[in-house]
Amino acid sequence: MKSLGIMYWYMLAVTIAGSITDIRKRSVHVAFFAAVAAGIAALMFWDRSIPAEARLFGILTGLLFLGLSFITKEAVGKGDAVMIMLTGAALGFSATAAVLCIGFLLLSLISLVLVVVKKYGRKERIPFFPFLAAGELVLAVLVLLP
Questions:
Q1: How far apart are CA 97 and CA 43, in angstroms?
Q2: 30-43 helix and 6-25 helix, angle to the nearest 10 degrees
Q3: Which residues fall within 8 angstroms of residue 115, CB to CB, at 6 or more apart?
Q4: Which of 16, 83, 89, 92 has the highest CB neighbour number within 10 Å of its CB?
Q5: DSSP characters for 68-122?
Q6: In the chain, what are the domain boundaries?
Q7: What pLDDT, in 10s, does the model give residues 24-75?
Q8: Could you tell me the CA-to-CA distances from 110 to 14, 116, 119, 120, 141 in Å, in that order?
Q9: How far apart are CA 15 and CA 68, in angstroms?
C-alpha cells in the first residue's frame, strides 16, 4: 500500500478547517493563510519528497488563479487562489492539478444540481474551499486504495 507524506495530511486538515470558515463566513482570515504558510515551511524540513520545481509550478498555478481573481473581479476568490498557491507549495504541481480537477468536477456537479432544484441562480456564489478539501480527500482515497 502506498503512503502519503505528513505534508499531504497537514494540507487536508487545514483545508477542511478553512472550509468550515469559508462556509460560515464566506471568507477566510489572512492570519489563517499565514499560519498555514508557516506550517508548510516547517514541514518542508521533514517532507522533502517533492522536488523544488514541482513546488514552484504549484505556486505558479495559484498565482494564475490570483490573476484570474483580479481580472474577473473575484469570480474566483482571492482566498481560494491563495489556498491553491499554498497547496501547490506543499504538494507540488501534479497533486495540485489533480485536486483542482476533482474539485472543479465536484463543484460543477453540485452547482448543476442546485440550479436544477432552483436553490441557486446563475449569480449565486458557492465557497470553493470545501471542494478543494473534497478533491484532496478523493485523491487520498485514490492513492491509498490501489
A1: 21
A2: 180
A3: 121, 122
A4: 83
A5: HHHHTTSSS-HHHHHHHHHHHHHHHHHHHHHHHHHHHHHHHHHHHHHHHTTS--T
A6: 6-140
A7: 998 899 999 999 999 999 998 888 889 999 999 999 999 999 999 999 988 8
A8: 22, 10, 11, 10, 20
A9: 21
